[in-house]
Amino acid sequence: QDFEKAKETHSMSEEEKVEFGAARKEVGSNLFRSGRIEMAMQRYKKVGELFSYIDNFKEENKSKAKDLKKVCELNRAACLLKVKDFSEAKTSCDNVLKEDAQNLKALFRKA
After folding, report:
1. 40: which residues sit within 8 A by CB, 6+ positions away?
2. Angle 49-51-53 from CA coordinates, rounded to 5°
3. How many CB atoms lie within 10 A of CB 87?
4. Digits of tens for pLDDT over the chain (111 positions)?
5. Nearest to 103 by CA among 65, 64, 77, 80
């Protein structure tokens, strides 16, 4: 049985990356809800890495990518708090606060 090989992220268009990132975030959220915290954390981290360089993205995609990255960083912080890795959770919150100083979830989770 042949499996279709997943497309490498570096060969994806901006739109495909945004779509892929959104799908990874959803998978992470479902894993988190079912208590599979470590696996959820990996999904969220992957999304963050996917959007580490978006300067060349079109404005519409850049904004979607930034939002996805922020949400995943916040969700990653929630995972880290669950596994009691407080210093990494603080780092995740600080990453969000660099871009969005008034983000209530980041401020709350950092505290």
Report:
1. 28, 29, 31, 32, 75, 79
2. 100
3. 7
4. 554 555 687 788 999 999 999 999 999 999 999 999 999 999 999 999 999 889 899 999 999 999 999 999 999 999 999 999 999 999 999 999 999 999 999 999 998
5. 77
